Amino acid sequence: MPFHLPQALDPDRAGETPTASATTPTCHLGLGLAAVGRPGYINLGRERDLPADRTVEALRARSHELLDAAYAQGVRYFDTARSYGRAEEFLAGWLKARPYVDDVVIGSKWGYTYTAGWRTDAERHEVKDHTLPTYERQRAETDGLLGDRLDLYQIHSVTPDSPALTDKELHARLAEAAAEGVTIGFSTSGPAQADAIRAALAVTVDGAPLFRTVQSTYNVLETSAGPALAEAHDAGLSVIVKEGVANGRLTGPHAPEALRDIAARTGLGPDAVALAYVLRQPWAGVVLSGAATVGQLTSNLHAAAVDLDEERFARLAALAQEPGAYWERRGQLPWH
């Protein structure tokens, strides 16, 4: 289907006053389904957020509850991936049951295969593979679930050494998908996100840039991708931000003291303040909420109401960590 960027995802319209239309969200936050599409994930506090009996039916119901709440509160971008357990299936079922939901943008990702078998104690929860055969297999799987509702297909977690950045045959297949109306993007992870973004910006097919969107981790603890994301925005890509609350490290009692102090002064949660910091970045198109409960989602959406003056903004900026240390800590988070 033809891809029409909502205003919040369109870098050329980021400064415009929002106008009412079928493709304009009423907020700049999106909803990612990583935390509710599978029984195990690395977010802190997740053992309390989800029911102890994490059946497929229970997580389907939770996903639909979150999607309903997000849509009702103006969220119009929903993000999933092949490796998020049954998240694509849950999203597809929600869309099918609600034919009136025709003004949303749906993004998914390929490149990781879910391997946990719906267990929380699996030795490996996902396996990364950026080769052409994996793309073709997972694209068929995604099409079987989301069909023509898929707007954006992203390479999942590109790093500077990813073969997806140099595989010309893969690039040609992605360009074919783009010609058919699916926007092609990529996400990044790891301490070298900036290098991966800049390498991806150089990828072209027949002289034209291949990628139209980039999704990266950016939060008050991990800001190293910021300059490269600004470059991507200036090059015409739409920027999606993930892990704005650092997998729970910027929420509740886990939040740094400075963040909790600012939150107390605003009367809102640390999560809302952390997301407000990301929304303040001029290149940020959509910032993802990874909420696992409706209460968390509602608190996240309060980010738009946070008043971050220069002093508060500077205090938050001072929390940034060295990228290697940040990603080492993230890699130590257990799968709950």
From TrEMBL:
Record SUPFAM superfamilies: NAD(P)-linked oxidoreductase (SSF51430)
Gene3D superfamilies to which the protein is assigned, alphabetical: NADP-dependent oxidoreductase domain (3.20.20.100)
Region Disordered, annotated ranges: 1-23
Start and end residues of each NADP-dependent oxidoreductase domain: 62-319
Pfam families linked: Aldo_ket_red
Highest taxon of the lineage: Bacteria
Protein's UniProt name: Oxidoreductase
Source organism per UniProt: Streptomyces ruber
